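Q: How would the structure tokens look for this protein?
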Amino acid sequence: MDLGLRGKVVIVGGASMGIGYGIAHQFAAEGAKLAITARRDPGLSAAADRIRVETGAEVLPILADCRRAEDCARVVEATLAHFGGIDGLVNNDGAPPLGELASFDDAAWARAVEQNLMYVVRMARAVVPQIAARGGGGIVNITAISAIQPIHGFGLSVATWGGVIGFAKTLSLEVAAQNINVNTICPGYIETQRLEKVFAAGGEEPRAVRRKLEAEVPMGRIGTVQDIAGIVALLVSPRGRYITGTAIQVDGGLLRAVR
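A: Here is the predicted structure in token form.
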């Protein structure tokens, strides 16, 4: 299926590795032009080079710390200067530290809010007028299954990504008339460095933790970044425009709730 993304300009955050890289690669394979961001080099430059070589896409790497307001503004400005417009945005980054809620001080909470919530708020606020000027487009936020099914030790993420879901739902109502859809993806267990930290967090043997997690998933496997990338590309594309205001779990059936 042609998703109609050829020539569209999409910003993808946290794209030097993991889910962000997989999403960026998917857009590139669909013919989109990309601005990709991450906090560190040479990882970001290497990711841009790989995507160019493997897909032939035009890729603009922008080093930026999503927790800084000025960096969010600079990403949008650089994308506009290079490509002349913006059609889509994927807000994606790492996550705050794991640990008991009572162990985190105000500074840790402030960092979590900047990283998970304010990053999304600032990027969306900056791109909505640009996307509207192009006739519409899509915004997708990447969170985690813990945002809708809390997990012990993930409290900083649960609280702040819960805010993202509420923000995205409200924004979807406010920008729908501009032909902009806004959705949130809640991945389950996905093969990333973040999951490796989960394997090691409890002191158990990592392979035993993997087997335990796989047994929790009805499909019997850990997900891949490609499992996330396909649905994100659809939601940003014209084919997915009528889907908005949703929080979609991509988890192999892990979420048990009926809602």
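Residues 191-222 form one domain.

The helical segments are 18-29, 43-55, 69-83, 106-133, 155-175, 193-201, 206-216, 225-236.

Upvote if useful.
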